[in-house]
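Side project, low priority. Logging it here so it doesn't get lost.
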Amino acid sequence: MQTRFLRHVCSWMFGLSALAILALMAVAFADVMMRSFVRPLSGAFELTEVLVGVMVFAALPFVTLSGKHVKVSLLRSLVGKNVLVQGLLRWCSRVATGMLMAFLAYHLWALGTQFAQTNSRAVFADLPLAPFAYFAAVMCALSTLAALFSADGDELAEEK
């Protein structure tokens, strides 16, 4: 049940990530076209930075839930086909990923609070930075849940 809810939320976030990519293309196109008229798009670099952040953090829960993070299998080759030890390694990996995501969520939320208190804004694009830090924190918190309830990539593919 939890996995179905998380999968539904993650699919929406994956769509948001796709929209961020579309917006990145639009910003790049507009900036290039405006430069040909010697009027570059003000704040294009900052918009690109923010949109890349939205793209990455929106996709993070989906990637975590589907178990598609980069993996290093140094220990798996040492334990061979021992199912119990492999299961323990998988559990430790999920807990470590969840703890890392929770750590990032906490610190990004604190950063968002600091941005909100100081009314930090992007210099040229004049965007408030706090909502983006809060968004990244919420996505990391969702990734924490996804890490704890995730299946292996193979199991998730079989479940569909």
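Brief comment: Residues 83-118 form the longest helix (36 residues).
Revisit when time allows.
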